[in-house]
Design brief:
heterodimer, A: Rossmann fold, Rossmann fold, globular, B: alpha/beta, five-stranded parallel sheet, 3 helices, 8 strands
C-alpha cells in the first residue's frame, strides 16, 4: 500500500497517501510505547547512525529512543567531537560513515539541502532529514499532524495558525507542505520582517496582527523566537515582540476559543507563549514529545524494511501469502 | 494478507472445506479446548491478524454457546516480529496488537488460519511473551498443511491437508471474502 520511499528528505514530494500511511503506522507505535516492554525486534541487526551537525537534544534523543525501541543499533555522531571540526568535508564524512554500512542515517545540518547532498552520495543507505538549515524538518511536521489528528480526528480542511519566527523556521515550512495536502488554511502571524511573502507562494496567508491571524483557528502553533540570532535585528526587542505576539489565554479566549496549542519546542515562557497557555488544557506540548518517538519509529521502520531492501524470501507463510496475492 | 480485494478465479482452485465444514471444525475445536483445559477458567484466546482474529472470535462465541462463559480475547499483529522483514516484496504494514487482559494469569490459545512453516507462530509467541509470562500457550489452526521449518505443532487442528511445498492454500472467511471455505490451487504451483 505504501509506495516505495528510499529517503525522507522533506514533506514536499510526499503524497497524501504516504503521509496517512506513516501516521497510521505511527498510531500503532504509540501503543507499543505504552506497553510494559517497549521494545520490539523489528530492526534487529540494522544500524542507524545519528549525524547531528547542529545542537539538538530532544530530536536526537527522540530518534535514538525510536531506533532502540525497534532493536536497531544506534550510533551517535556529533559534529563538535568529530573530524568535521578538523576540517573534513561533509561528503568525506558521509563516505566514511557509509563504509560502516549503516541502514539508515539520521541527519541534522545547519545548511539547507545538506541531507539531499549526503543522500546522493550514499546509494546503499536511507537518509532521514532531522532538520536542514531553513529547508525542512519532516518528522516534526508528521508528529504535529499526528497530534492534531488524534485530537481532532481529521486533518482535512482545518485552520492552522503559526505564531512567531516563521522566517527562520524549517518546521513551519514542512508543516505548510503537509497541511496543504489536506486542504488546510494556513496562517502565519509575526512582524513583517519574520513572516515574509515567500510563504504566500507556498499557499499560506501572512498577517502582522494576532486577531486576523488566529481568529477561528482550530490549531495555534507557537514558533520559537530565535534569540541566538537576535543580533540580526529583525525585531526591535523581545519585550516589544512579546507585547504584540505572545500567545496568552486572553488572546486565545477572544479570537480562537476552541483551539488546541502546539509548540515544536523548546518554548520560551513569557516571550512567545504564556505559562497559562503552555500549562493549560489547550496545550499538547508534552504529548508532542511522546508522539515524536512513535512517528520516528514509523519512519525508521518504513525506510529500514522498505521493499527495495535486498532480495525476497518466499519461505515464510506471509511470503507465500503475498505470492498468492500477487499471482491473482 | 491473502489477496483481499483481488479477484478470486474459482475455476483454478479446488475446494477442500466448505462453509459448513469450517463451522463444524470450529465447533469441534471449541469443545476440545474446553475438554483439554477442564472448562474455560483462566483461558484466553488470541487471534493472529487477519484471519486468525476472525477465527478466534468465532471460537470465543462458540465457547460462550457451549459453556456460557465469556473468554477474554486479544489480537496479535506479528509484523514487528517477522524474521523476513526487509526481504519481502511488499512494504509491511503494522496493524497493531491488542491484548486487553493480563497475559500472566492466563492459558492462551493462539489461533491462526493455516499452519505451514511455523514461522508466523514463532513470531506470535515472541509478541505474546513481550506482554508477560502466560501459564501456557496452546495452538489452534483451521488447517495444517505441513512443511514445518521450526519445531512447532498445533494442539487443535480443523483439517490436515497434504500439500506440496510450492502449492498455494487459501482460507476464505465471510468477514473478509465473498465465499467461505478452504481452497487449494489446482496447478500445484
Amino acid at each position: 500500500m505504501n509506495s516505495e520511499l528510499k529517503h525522507l528528505l522533506g514533506i514536499k514530494g510526499l503524497g497524501k497517501e504516504q503521509v496517512l500511511a506513516l501516521l497510521d503506522s505511527a498510531d500503532q507505535f504509540v501503543d507499543v510505547n505504552k506497553r510494559a516492554v517497549k521494545k520490539v525486534p523489528a530492526l534487529r541487526g540494522k544500524t542507524i547512525v545519528n549525524m547531528f551537525f547542529e545542537a539538538s537534544t530532544r530530536t536526537r534523543m527522540s530518534f535514538e529512543l525510536a531506533g532502540k525501541r525497534l532493536s536497531a543499533d544506534v550510533i551517535n555522531f556529533g559534529a563538535s567531537s568529530s573530524s568535521t571540526s578538523k576540517g573534513e568535508s561533509l561528503i568525506d564524512t558521509a563516505l566514511t560513515i557509509q563504509s560502516m554500512s549503516p541502514d539508515v542515517v539520521v541527519m541534522r545540518h545547519p545548511a539547507s539541502g545538506a541531507c539531499k547532498l549526503v543522500a546522493d552520495h550514499l546509494p546503499e543507505t536511507s537518509v532521514v532529514n532531522a532538520g536542514d538549515g531553513l529547508h525542512e524538518h519532516p518528522t516534526q511536521a508528521l508528529l504535529d499532524a499526528l497530534c492534531i489528528r488524534r485530537k481532532l480526528g481529521t486533518l482535512e480542511n482545518l485552520s492552522v495558525s503559526f505564531v512567531g519566527d516563521a522566517l527562520r523556521s524549517r518546521v513551519v515550512r514542512s508543516n505548510i507542505y503537509l497541511l496543504k495536502l489536506f486542504g488546510c488554511r494556513v496562517r502565519l502571524v509575526a512582524p513583517p520582517t519574520l513572516a515574509v511573502t515567500e510563504f504566500e507562494g507556498m499557499g499560506a496567508e501572512v498577517f502582522p496582527d494576532m486577531k486576523r491571524g488566529i481568529e477561528g483557528a482550530d490549531v495555534v502553533v507557537s514558533l520559537r523566537m530565535k534569540h541566538e540570532y537576535q543580533k540580526d535585528i529583525y525585531i526591535p526587542s523581545l519585550e516589544e515582540y512579546s507585547r504584540l505576539y505572545c500567545i496568552t489565554e486572553d488572546r486565545l479566549r477572544d479570537y480562537a476559543p476552541d483551539c488546541m496549542v502546539l509548540a515544536p519546542g523548546p518554548i520560551i515562557r513569557g516571550t512567545e507563549i504564556a505559562s497559562d497557555v503552555a500549562d493549560g488544557p489547550r496545550s499538547h506540548i508534552e504529548e508532542q514529545v511522546e508522539l515524536g518517538v512513535a512517528v520516528r519509529m514509523a519512519v525508521l521502520f518504513l525506510l529500514a524494511t522498505g521493499a527495495d531492501n535486498k532480495g525476497r524470501d518466499s519461505s515464510s507463510e506471509s511470503g507465500i501469502k503475498e505470492l498468492v496475492a500477487n499471482e491473482q | 494478507m491473502s489477496g483481499e480485494g483481488k479477484k478470486f478465479d474459482r475455476s483454478v482452485w479446488t475446494e477442500l472445506m466448505d462453509a459448513e465444514q469450517v463451522d463444524r471444525s470450529i465447533t469441534r475445536i471449541a469443545h476440545e479446548i474446553l475438554e483439554n483445559n477442564k472448562g474455560g477458567k483462566k483461558l484466553a484466546i488470541v487471534g493472529i491478524r487477519t484471519r486468525g482474529e476472525t477465527l478466534g472470535q468465532r471460537i470465543v462465541s462458540k465457547i460462550k454457546e457451549i459453556d456460557g462463559v465469556e473468554i477474554p480475547f486479544g489480537v496479535v499483529d506479528i509484523t514487528l516480529y517477522r524474521d523476513d522483514l526487509g526481504q519481502g516484496a511488499d512494504q509491511p504494514v503494522v496493524q497493531g496488537t491488542s491484548i486487553p487482559f493480563h497475559v500472566d494469569d492466563h492459558k492462551i490459545v493462539l489461533v491462526d488460519d493455516v499452519l505451514f512453516t511455523g514461522r508466523t507462530i514463532r513470531a506470535a509467541l515472541d509478541a505474546i511473551i513481550d506482554f508477560g509470562r502466560p501459564q501456557a500457550v496452546q495452538l489452534a489452526v483451521l488447517c495444517d498443511r505441513g512443511h514445518r521449518e521450526l519445531p512447532i505443532r498445533a494442539d487443535y487442528v480443523g483439517k490436515n491437508i497434504p500439500t506440496e511445498r510450492e502449492q498455494f492454500v487459501r482460507v476464505h472467511l465471510e468477514d473478509h471474502d465473498e465465499e467461505e471455505g478452504v481452497f487449494i490451487h489446482k496447478s500445484g504451483k
